[in-house]
Amino acid sequence: MTTESCPPTREELLRGLAERGMRITFVTGRMFRSAMRFADRVPLGAPVVAYNGAMIVDQMGITWYHDPIPADTSLEVLRFFKSLGVYVQAYRDEELLVEEASSTRARYYTELSGVSPLEMGEALFDEPFASTKILAVEEDSSRLGRIIKEAASRFPDLEFYTSKGHFLEVMRRGVNKGSSLEMLCLLLGLQPQEVLVMGDGDNDRHMLSRFPTSVAVASASKGAKEAARFHVPEGIDPVSWIADNLLFPHDRCPLEVP
């Protein structure tokens, strides 16, 4: 059966690309163990860039790189969001740390990530620790914009990215998906022109702008689309579009499905 008679699933497309020698991995804002929930669906061939670039971990769970927010700064940031009445969570040693696990937003994130949180109570705002990243949640976009402006002024050594429209990702300045993927490529002996990246959020901007073959999916944010060189049209699976238009543009049926 060929792609003409029955379009392959995304998992089948990815397996076909891996069989052609392409190394596939995740570059994600998720925790490593949250990303690995999808490892059985994607044939990973390289370490995972997790936490928006703050950590690189291979499939054996060995950390290649980790650049968390320093302990004292993490505590200040957590207290800052708490003072504004904004939900906030932290990450330490692959644990998701929340004030109250039963809160609506903690339960929402648990469902999204597949990771059960560790309830810290007030200790989340009392005990300094280095957090791999910090995530705040604010649904009011206008208020989120004001919070970002105030936070950026108060914490000049940090960077603030939005994702999913209402997540505010807090990282050390200079830590992002683009810089960490460049580091991974250097460790693997790959040149930027040998890499294809795909993204959809504002936290993908650095990565999409640094690699010449960068693709924004149809539902991507404005920032992601501005940073990417290529855009996937509406209604088309992005992996299929990439295979047909960028990887094998001269092959009529590049990937056979048994």
UniProtKB/TrEMBL annotation:
Species of origin: Thermanaerovibrio velox DSM 12556
Protein's UniProt name: HAD-superfamily hydrolase, subfamily IIB
Stored SUPFAM superfamilies: HAD-like
Pfam families: Hydrolase_3 (PF08282)
Gene Ontology terms for molecular function: magnesium ion binding; phosphatase activity
GO CC aspect terms: cytosol
InterPro entries reported in the protein's UniProt record: HAD-like_sf (IPR036412), HAD-SF_hydro_IIB (IPR006379), HAD_sf (IPR023214)
Domain of life the protein comes from: Bacteria
